[in-house]
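Entry 14. Structure prediction run on the chain below.
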Amino acid sequence: MALSKINSIAIGGFDGMHIGHRALFEQLGEHGAIVVIETGYANLTPGREREKHTHYPIVYYPLDEIRHLEGKEFVAYLLMQFPNLKKIVVGYDFHFGKDRRYSHQDLKDFFAGVVCVIEQVTIDNDSVHSHKIRAKLQIGDIDGANRFLGHNYCISGNVIKGQGLGKKEFVPTLNLECYGFLVPQEGVYVTLTRIDDEEHYHPSVAFMGHRVCTDGSYAIESHILDMDVQSVQRATICFVRFLRKNQKYETLELLKKAIQTDISNAKKELFHLSL
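Output returned:
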């Protein structure tokens, strides 16, 4: 959509594209767009990952390019970018302009159109914020993170060569190199994995952490359940549930048994979720 056709915008960082963000997007009309202010700290939905979670066009502005603007200058900049702008949607804690000294009240003074301010969104009396989702992921609270997100947390990356032990000794896995994403706490997870450009997701179990039973290196691995995949270039892992923490086993035989238990538990979890 051409910028000249856009008449409403939602402004924010929108890392995670969580349910609080979607409350803003619901106020956009047919010719709405999302304006992302890139701070450089987004690691839930870095870069264009946000586009997977909305049908609205997204326009990106690096913070360093606009942080020097005073309040009126910022609004003038928006009107120059979006000449047909009639409505701006922001969150209750939105601040803008030089040193973030301006609030949504100032926005109402500077902008002649409609300014829609969305109050905080809560779940069980807990306000939804990206930093809280990060904190949940870092302790393996996938259920809590996904509840705040409104979707399964996902990471994407290129498939790289692993140790080679999986297919020989244990089960075949896809080894991923994921740049820019926050990786959850080390451990084993029930997951869904998307391969290359396929539209559907395969049931899977994933491990991320240091290979304490072998070479000690850090790995992100996904085992696709009941399917042998080969020649994969890129994959997306979506986290459904935390199974267990990373732990060391004294023998490879004990590790094999643990992996088979993980697979069995993952199948049970995914079966119950599909009912």
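The helical segments are 19-25, 63-66, 71-81, 104-110, 130-138, 142-149, 165-169, 252-274.
Filed with the rest of this week's runs.
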